[in-house]
Amino acid sequence: MQTRELLFYSILGVSFLLSFFVIGFILYLPNFIKFILIFLSGVFAYFAYFSFKFDYITLALLSQKSKKIKTGGQRYWFSPTGDVLVTKIGNTFYASVFLRLHYYSSYTEKTDEEKVEFVRLWERAIGSSEQPINFSSIVVYINREAYISAINEKLLKAQSEYEEAKQKEAKGEEIERLRGEVAMWKNILDHIKATPSRNQLSVVIVTQKGENEEAAIANAKTVSSNLALNLSAILGVEVTQLNQHEIEACIEAEKIMPSSEVVLK
């Protein structure tokens, strides 16, 4: 039974239970209790209809609360190390590793000759893998407000301690230490404010299968490790493996418009 139908029948069942309870004890319940139970029965019946009719909304909301991405009956979970996504289809396990390509120059900044050479290298990079791979370019938005607020608090605290030390005519070493601390937090704050709120990720996804979870993960890591070496050598870029937090950022859009079910452990 799919999640949509299970949710519908569960909520509808609660509505029926409340109705049967009122009918069974109609002679013994006070009128206001009957009214409340009948009202709740109606509310659950309406919500059952709403959850079935607009499942793309209710399932998405429930997915966010439970840290799951729901749809299509497919289920993914993270490996114990948190850097591999695993799923099971039938009796076969599939594991996916996410690699990031670190570019330090823009394609638009290259000359015509460099653009031609760049495309040629990409053709070599794609052809270097005998296994199917997925290349994606993802823009991730970073919320800097929490970091800025936390640094501001530390900066204000350091400035307060620095001014208090000067008023109390503390030792020169203590004043210099506090002055250095104030300068440090100011530099960190300026650096965070100067950091772009958007970050573009060039990601390569490698998926391999196995008879069990461990075999699938081992196969995916072996293939991705070899691919990372080839991409680094051919493209001349740094290639690193994404961790769980970075993978979650890549699939953040699926939490709003889900196309699969991901369990975030």
The major pleated sheet works out as: 7 strands, mixed
Strand content is: 15-25%
Work out the radius of gyration.
28 Å
Mean pLDDT, nearest integer?
76
Which residue ranges are poorly predicted, with pLDDT under 50 across at least 5 consecutive positions? 64-73, 253-265
**Broad shape:** flat
Distance between the termini: 24 Å
Count of individual domains:
3
Order of helices and strands: HHHEEEHEHHEHEHHE
Give a description of the structure.
With 265 residues, the protein is an alpha+beta fold. It folds into three domains: 3-53; 76-142 and 197-263, no CATH class; 145-194. The protein is 58% helix and 18% strand. The chain has helices at residues 3-24, 31-53, 55-65, 112-127, 145-167, 172-194, 213-235, 244-250, 252-256; strands at residues 76-78, 84-89, 92-102, 133-141, 198-210, 238-241, 262-263. Strands 1, 2, 3, 4, 5, 6 and 7 form a seven-stranded mixed sheet that branches. A hairpin with a 2-residue loop joins strand 2 (84-89) and strand 3. The longest helix has 23 residues, at 31-53. The protein starts with a helix and ends with a strand. Mean pLDDT is 76; it is low at 64-73 and 253-265.
